[in-house]
Specification:
about 75% helix
Length: about 300
């Protein structure tokens, strides 16, 4: 397992040192992210959805993803109130504790731990049980933090988001024969997501504010990356669910660190920027410890 994670650490570290050494600046990161979102990511989604063997049980996986997010929202809201957070910090705390980085970090971990089969389930989970919930639920959380009704759901942005369009396209194309050379080209383009995403995330990593917000960041990490995924595994175990690739893929996605997109939403709403950015940075580093540990539990129980 740790040998498979070497490439994850390598690509991430190269991005971090590229920025630290001044080889690339923030503009380079933005270009990489746009290329991923508009070209590489959709190609990866279409290729994997086309080859995905949809099982009836997979709908239970998707529903469990929504259930985990709703539970995390309630748990983190309660924890934040107990910790005496104000509305801005509390809303930011809930955002960072509830939504995970299921694509940019999730996909590399899927490939490292489960291979291509796990990745195929992950691309659907990412869109329907991660991106869709954050798109529909975050406006209400952010509105609470701003103490006003100025945040609304932009349905047009949800349905026109390139990866979301790609997943619909992928399911439609499953009804037709696609030449192998076309699928091969999509796979080649799609596989650039993993190294480029990790490189871009590494470029954006910052540590400056983590020490100042250690208590709140630690609580985010514990809820998002330790307690909730461990509890999820325990529920599956006592429910007698067979821990196959499909469920292991879901566990990996649920164990991901705080979502970069969620931090962008927090910053855009004028809430607690330091908590959001620090949670993302610390979460990325901790994921190299917590995610393999959580994955190990799926093979023990």
């Amino acid at each position: 397992m740790f040998e498979n994670l070497f490439s994850v650490v390598l690509f991430f570290s190269l991005g971090y040192f590229a920025r630290k050494r001044g080889i690339l600046d923030e503009t380079g990161s933005d270009i990489l992210i746009r290329f991923i979102i508009y070209f590489a990511f959709p190609a990866l989604v279409i290729y994997n959805v086309y080859h995905l063997d949809i099982k009836p049980q997979f709908f239970a996986v998707l529903l469990s993803g929504w259930a985990v997010i709703m539970f995390s929202i309630g748990l983190s809201f309660f924890a934040g109130r107990v910790m005496g957070m104000d509305r801005k910090t509390l809303a930011s705390f809930v955002m960072m504790s509830s939504f995970g980085n299921t694509s940019f970090l999730g996909f590399p971990f899927q490939m490292a731990l489960l291979g291509e089969e796990g990745l195929r389930y992950a691309v659907v989970f990412d869109q329907l049980a991660s991106f869709l919930p954050v798109s529909l639920l975050s406006p209400f959380i952010l509105a609470y933090g701003k103490a006003e009704g100025g945040v609304s759901i932009d349905i047009k942005k949800v349905v026109t988001f390139p990866p979301f369009v790609a997943i619909v396209t992928g399911f439609l194309l499953k009804q037709f024969y696609i030449p192998e050379f076309v699928l091969g080209s999509l796979k080649t383009l799609g596989m650039t997501v993993i190294p480029l995403a990790l490189f871009a995330v590494g470029m954006n990593l910052r540590f400056s504010k983590v020490k100042q917000r250690l208590r709140d960041v630690s609580a985010v990490i514990f809820i998002k990356m330790v307690f909730v995924p461990a509890l999820f595994i325990a529920v599956l175990f006592f429910a007698g669910v067979e821990m196959d690739v499909m469920w292991k893929s879901a566990v990996i996605e649920i164990a991901m660190p705080p979502m970069v997109l969620a931090s962008i939403f927090v910053i855009g709403a004028g809430l607690d920027k330091d908590l959001a950015v620090s949670s993302v940075g610390a979460g990325i580093i901790m994921s190299f410890i917590t995610v393999p540990a959580i994955f190990y539990l799926t093979g023990v129980l």
